[in-house]
Amino acid sequence: MSNTVALLGWSLPAIESMRSMDRPFVMVSFADFEPYAREHGIPFVAWNYNDWSERSNALQLKERLDPHGAELAVPLFEETVEWAGALNSLYRDDPRLLNRAYLCRNKAIMKRKALLAGFRVGLFEEVHTVEQVHQFMKRLNEAHLQLPGEEDAWVHLKPFSAAGTVGHKLLRSHASIDERVIPADFPCLVESHLPGLEFSCEAFIHDGKVRFLNITEYVKLGYSNFVPAGTQLEGQRDRIRAAIEKLARAFGIEYGMIHPEWFLTEDDELSFGEVACRIPGGHIFELIEAAHGFDPIQALVLCSDPKVTDDEIRAFFPSDEKTPEQYAGSVMVYPKPGRISRLEVPEELKEDPYFHSHTLISPHEHKVSDTREGFGNHYGTVFFQGTDPDRMRELLVHYQDTDFFA
Amino acid sequence: MDESVEALLEASPLMRPELVRRLLSQVDLLTSTREGVEHLYAAIPRMVEGGVFEDGPWAHPGRLVPALVAGTLRAGGPTMLMEILSELRIVALAEGRIQRPGYSAKRARRFLEEMMVASLDMVLADHTTKPDSLSEKDGARVTALMDFLRERIPVRALKPGLATEISLLCLQRPIVTDRALDLLRLVRDHVPIDDHAPVDEGLPDDGDPEWEDPDPDRRLAVYLNAAFTPSEAVRAHSVGEYEAFLDSASPSTIEAECRALGLTMRQTGLAVPHHAVLARRVASRPALLGALLGLNPTGEAELRRHREFVAELVDRAIAPELPRGCYGLGRLLDRGILSQQPVRSGLQRFFGLELHPEVEGAIRLSRPDASVDAAGLLLADVIAVLGQPLGVGQGRNPTCQSARGISLWSRHAPGKLLDMIRSVARSHDLTMRFEGDVLRASELGLGLVKEFDHNLDAVSVVLVPHLDRIYNEMMRRAAWRGDDPHKWVNPAMYGHWIPTGFLSAYDYATDAIRDYEGFLRTFYATHHPRYNRGHDLAYPNPVGIFLTSATGELIGFHAVSILRVREVRGSTRVYLFNPNSEGRQRWHADIRPTVAGNGERPGESSLPFHEFASILYAFHYNPSDVGELDAVDAAEVDRVRALSESSWGDSYRWVTAAGLPDATETGG
What we know:
The complex is a heterodimer of chains A (406) and B (668). An eight-stranded antiparallel β-sheet of chain A has the order 13-12-9-10-11-14-18-16. In chain A, strands 3-2-1-4 form a four-stranded parallel β-sheet, sandwiched between helices. A four-stranded antiparallel β-sheet of chain A has the order 5-8-6-7, with helices on both faces. In chain A, helix 3 (58-65) crosses helix 4 and helix 4 runs antiparallel to helix 5. By secondary structure, chain A is of the alpha+beta class. Residues 365-376 of chain A have low confidence and may be disordered. In chain A, 33% of the residues lie in helices and 24% in strands. Chain B is of the alpha+beta class. Chain B folds into four domains: 2-153, no CATH class; 169-180 and 187-194 and 213-357, no CATH class; 392-478, no CATH class; 496-666, no CATH class. Chain B is built from 30 helices and eleven strands. In chain B, strand 6 (541-548) and strand 7 (554-568) form a beta hairpin. In chain B, helix 9 (159-171) crosses helix 11, helix 17 (297-305) crosses helix 19 (324-335) and helix 19 (324-335) crosses helix 22 (374-387). Chain B starts with a helix and ends with a helix. The A-B interface holds A 12-13, 15-16, 19, 40, 342-345, 347, 350-351, 356-362, 380, 383 and B 4, 11-15, 18, 21-23, 25-26, 28-29, 75-79, 135, 137.
C-alpha cells in the first residue's frame, strides 16, 4: 500500500511537516513551483487550478497522481478545496464528498445549511446589484427600528468563495455602499453584523468524532489572535464542542479538519459565522504547534485519512481538556497608508518577556496604497508567547495599532 | 535565541529563510550591547552550521566586499543584523574558531582590516558621537560591534590600510575631496601618528608615485600635513586668525606661506580654507599666486598673460568655504586653455550670471553649509572641471554616460562645455540635436536617475539631470535598429570626433554574442600598438563594457573611455577614465583596474590590454585605420575569449559569424 497523500497547494511548512512524518506525499500546484520542487527533490505534479474544463478536471488530475500512488487529497488553500473534494470522491467512490466540499466553498449555501441545522446565523442574502445592497440595509434598519438621524445598520459584503478577509467590505452606511461597492463585487453575499467576541475553532475530525478541538481567540479579525483562547471562551468549551459536533454532523464531515468562525455575545449566545475546510490563515497552525505541541499539518493529514486507525489518532493528539500552560499569539503587521522607508521595531517590544520573534521585513521605500483588497499584503508578523491570556490580549491590542514603519 | 539556532539546525533548507528571519528578530536586542555581541559571537559556530548565511548575499565570505559593509550596516533592519552576524563570523574565521576551505584566517583578518578602513567613521564613533544617518539604536549596534572589533584589531593596526586608502583617493585628484578630508580628520582626531619619523620629499605629482613607502606613519603624515598643517602658521591660526596673521606678515613670510601651501597642494591635490584666504590675498601678484597654485611653466606663462582675468576668477570663485577651486585653478592654468578664446570668454560669461532658482536650489543642496552665493560655488567647480577633467565622478548616480561626457568635453571641447553649463544654469533646460531634431530636456521623460545624489561637483549637479534625460531619449529613438543604439547616440551625444566605425560583440537581433573573434581582432587591430602600426588615440574612445560581479555574473553594462594604450614594464595596458567608484571599481574577481603603480596619470585607471579586451562589448574605430586582422595573434584571441567565457559569457548564447549556433558552444 502506497498511501501517498496529495497535498493541493504550495506550502513550505507543509512540505517540511510531511518530510518529518515519514509518509509519501506529492505536492500539486502551479507549474511555477516545479523548478523549485525539482531542485529540492520534492515530489510534484504541476496543475492549473484555475482551468476547469473537459480536458482539465479531477479525472485528469487523478491520472497524473496515479503514478505517485496517491489515495488521498488534502487541500491546503481555499481554492483547492473543491479539487480535493472531487479527488476524494473518486478515491472513496462517494460523490457526495464533492458536494460537501462545495458547501465549504459557497458562503450562502453554508449559511443556509447552518440555519437549517438550527444554528443562529445573521440575516443574509445573495445580491446581484448595488440597489439590492441598499434594500438589504434598509430592511435591516427597519428591523432595528431606526429613527431619523440614527446610524445605519452595519452590513458585511463578502464574495461567495474567498479565503478569510479577501474581498470583505464592512459597509456602515448607505453612503459607503455607493462609495465602496463596485460592479465586480457581484454576485455576492451580504449579511448583518454579528456582535460578540469573534473566535475560530480548528476541529480535527476522524471517523465523525472530534479528536482535538482548538479554540483561537480573535483579538482583531485579520490582524491578531492567540491560542488557546482566554478564560471566557475556554469556559464555554463544552458548549462549543457540542456546537462543533452538531456542525460536523449537519455538514456530514467525517474526516479532516474544519475551521469555523463563531461569535459569542456577552450573554453567551453563540452565532455561526462561516466554516472553511483548509489551513486557517493568521498563523493559527503555527500558534497551535507552539501552544499544544503537535504538528497541525500532520494532524490534518492523519485525520483526513480513513485508513488511519483510532489508536494512531489517540497516540497523536494530546488531551484537549486541559488548557496548556503556554499561550501563543501573533499580530500581523500592515504598514499605515503613506510613504514608508524603514522598519522600526520598538525597543519595548523586543524587551517584553512575551516577545518571541518577528518576521518583519524592511521594505524598500515606497508608497503604501490606502486601498487594499482584503487586508492587503502584510509585512510580517510578530509572535508572542506567555502564560497569561489577559496579558497576551493586552499586548496584541497594543501592537496591532503600533506603527512599525517610519 | 539559542533555541531558535537549534531549530535551524534541525530544519531542512526549505524553511530556512523563515527561521532565519525569526532568529534575526531575536538577535536584534543582543546586538545593541557589548555583552549581547559576545553572546552572539559565542553562538556563531552553531549559526554557521545551521545555515544562517546560506542562500543569501552573505553565503560566500570570499565574495563579500569590505567597502560595502558600512552601507549595509546603515541599511538598518534585518539587513544590518545579518551584516553584524557576518562580521562576527569573519572574526571567528580570523581567530580560527571556525574554518572554511579557501578562506584562511589571514584572509579573514585582512577583510576585517579593509572593512574597518572603509568604515572608519563607524569604527571611531564612540558612545557620544554616532555616525550620521543612523538612529540612536542602530548607532548603539554599530558601537557595540566596533568596540568588539577594535578589541581584536586596534586602530593602530589600520594605519597601513588607511595610508593606502587615502593615497589612492588623493592620487586620482578627484574634484570632490570630501571623502579624503573626512578620513584625514578622523585619523587626526583618533589615530596616534608618530610624526617624529622623518618625512620624505613626498609624492611626485605624476608618473609612478612612490606611494608604497613602507612606513605608514610617514605616508599618513604627508596627507595630514597637507590637510591641516601645510605651514606652521596654518597650524597656529584658524581661518579667521590667518587673515589677521597675513595682515601683519612680512612679504617674505607671505612668500614662504605661498611656497609651503603650494607644495602640499601640488603633492596631494588637497586644498584647505587657508589656501583660499591666501589666494585672495595674492590674487593680483602672479609670482606669489603662481607659487601658491604650484604651477608648471605653462601655467606660469598663462598666469602672467592673463593676470587680471585670473585675479577676477579668484575674486569671484575662490572662497574659504570651497577651497578646492584653488587646486582646479592651478591645473586649469597648467593646461594652457585660458589662451583659448572660447574658454576665456566662456568663463567671463559666468561673471554676474543669474541662476535659475531651481539651479540655485540644487547647488545649495550639494553644499548645504556654504554661505557663498551659488554662482560663486558653480564658478569654482567650473574651474575645477576644466582643470581636472579626469576628476569628474558620477557619485551614486547611474549616470556614467553623463559624467563621461563632462570629462570628455572638458578635455576636448571646453568651450562647448562652458556654453552648456551656462545655458542650463540660466534656463534650467538643455537642448541638443539628434539626427536633425532638437531635443529639449524639459520636454522629455525621465532619465535613468530616480533620486539624484547631490554629493557631486556643482557642474555635475547642474548638468547631469538634463544630460541624463537627453541621453535616455536618444537611446529610445535609436532602439530597435538592429544594432547597439550607442552607435548613433555616442557621436550625437559626445561630439562628431567620435569615429564612424562601430562594432559590438552583442547582436541585438539575435540576443547573442556574434563573431566574437572578429570583434576582438578588430579591437586589437585598431587599438593595440603592435597591430595598429603604433598609432595613438587622438580622442578618448567612449566604449561599453560588461560589468560582472565579483563572482563573474553579468550585472549590466557600463560606460568608460579609453584614454590611451601604453607599454609598461613589458606589458601593454589600457588607460581609462571610469567615473565610477573613483576608478577603483572591481570588474570581476580577477579583473581589478589599478589607479596607481602602473604608470597611471591622476584620475586614470588601467588594466592589461587582454583583460580589458575581455570585458569590452562595444567600441568605435576609424575604418581606414584598421590594421591587418589576420596578424592578430591567435593565442592572444583565445586567451581573451577564455577570460570572457569564464565571466559574463555564461549569460549569453554565442554564435559564429555565419549566424548559426556554434555546435561547441550551444551543443549542450
